[in-house]
From TrEMBL:
Compartment(s) where it occurs, according to its Swiss-Prot or TrEMBL record: Membrane
GO molecular function: intracellular sodium-activated potassium channel activity; outward rectifier potassium channel activity
Mode of membrane association: Multi-pass membrane protein
Any one Gene Ontology cellular component term annotated for this protein: plasma membrane
Lineage top rank: taxon: Eukaryota
UniProt-recorded name of the protein: RCK N-terminal domain-containing protein
Keyword check for Transport: yes
InterPro entries linked: K_chnl_Slo-like, RCK_N
Protein source organism: Allacma fusca
Domain RCK N-terminal residues, every copy: 10-72
Pfam families per UniProt: Slo-like_RCK (PF22614)
Keywords: Ion channel, Ion transport, Membrane, Potassium, Potassium channel, Potassium transport, Transmembrane, Transmembrane helix, Transport
Length: 75
């Protein structure tokens, strides 16, 4: 019988999908080797099927949608 190994955070990718351009602070964070191999940033909208396809939403284990409480342009 084959023993299964423990699943760790290294087994997953995180995709950040945002309509905003990546800010300099986040760009710096995502260049840290620990995150650079696991976190992918895509500029787009979770309201557009094409962007969800680019983010490979159909293959995702989970999805978290975070929205700003006050955002002027809600498109």
């Amino acid at each position: 019988m084959r023993k299964s190994r423990e699943v760790t955070w290294e087994d997953f990718f995180v995709v950040l999908l945002s309509p905003m351009e990546l800010d300099p602070t986040m760009r710096m964070i995502l260049q840290v080797p620990m995150w650079a191999q696991r976190v992918i940033y895509i500029q787009g909208s979770c309201l557009k099927d094409a962007d969800l396809t680019r983010a490979r939403m159909g293959e995702a284990e989970a999805c978290f949608i975070l929205a700003a409480r006050s955002y002027a342009d809600k498109t």
